[in-house]
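Figure 2 data, in text form.
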Amino acid sequence: MKRKECANCGVQNMKRGVVFKDGILCASCFEKMAGKRVSLLGLKESMEYMRTRIADLSSPDYKGVVCPKCGSVHVELVGNHRKGFSFGKAAGGAFLAGGVGLLAGFAGKKNGTQFFCDTCHKTFKIK
């Protein structure tokens, strides 16, 4: 059985840690480097960290987002996208609430935040 040891501080047999390509970080080291708590990581986010290197956390390019294709932290924000005006919602809003209900056409959810990876040139969304 392989022992768990933090690559930063050397703590052994920790209860919680984050696995990277090149080692494991204990919860306190991960929180210091990434600014996130280990107990709040979901499965998808944990899988993204498994593709990255520990050194990438201290990179000035790290923004908390990892490319899902290549695992690079060199990503740029392209933009936040919101769905446009919906005539169906406006008509329904006008029917239910009158003239003020026309504003319901602008109601909608965010379509996601789009990023561009500088390493593999893939564009991806995070919802």
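Caption note: Strands lie at 17-20, 23-26, 75-82, 110-117, 123-126.
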